[in-house]
Amino acid sequence: MTASSRAAQTKAEHIAKFGTYGAWGWFKQFSPDEARQIEELGYGTIWLGGSPKNLHPIRTILEATEHITVATGIVNIWNSVPYVIAGEFHALERDFPGRFYLGVGAGHPEATSEYTTPFKAVGRYLDALDGKQVPPNRRLLAALGPRMLRMSAERSLGAHPYLTTPEHTAEARKILGPDALLAPEHKVVLTEDADEARAVGRPPVDQPYLHLSNYTRNLKRLGYTDEDIADGGSDALIDALVAHGTPAQVKARLDEHLAAGANHVTIQVLGSETPVEQLAAIISA
User: What is the pTM (predicted TM-score) of this model?
Assistant: First the structure.
């Protein structure tokens, strides 16, 4: 076996740990009991979103579960120190070997006055992680545009695109090549009432994402117009970004990402104080 084939095999083994479906929640959203339930349902990964300055909440989820993969979606390079994050990564690896994957990204320019040249800044952050021996196959990047997608394939396990469509997934797979992880997030509302689904889904899409340039640029690359993005988003845009319907209909929409080239799709349930119930309905559909 050649060195390149061994590397590809290793990457494939890491990707397999994510499973087909994941559950996405904000940092500290899932209680330890909910994390256990998500694991018991058969989900492969719990994703913790937001921009944490440290990885302390990760430990709570890992302690509550036995084998499920846990990943950040994402640690923001602008409000975290790579050397600190690297040290916490190694501590988690020591205590929970092989279970934690570090997702990092540049966030968006509206969030910080320090936001400049995100592509180069992410590269510098990865350099620092390299210096502290955080393995490339144990990290991934938030990536929407072509340059960041290429970097995610070259310097990490792969990409975790947020607020995207299966059409974006297809384009991302072309850029990433066949071997990198592609793990998009997709929002869902379990209702067959389209008006109700849009009423739940529109506010968290509109604020903040339809006012953030990196997300709106990506939507325009997919063919959406200024009119689609204005005034909280057109019905067509909201329906594309927030799946609704029966559990089977929602799962079919999520599976469009898999058909388009995703290895894994992670589900963010909207409008429910008991998201595990919806996650159970979706995965069993």
Answer: 0.95
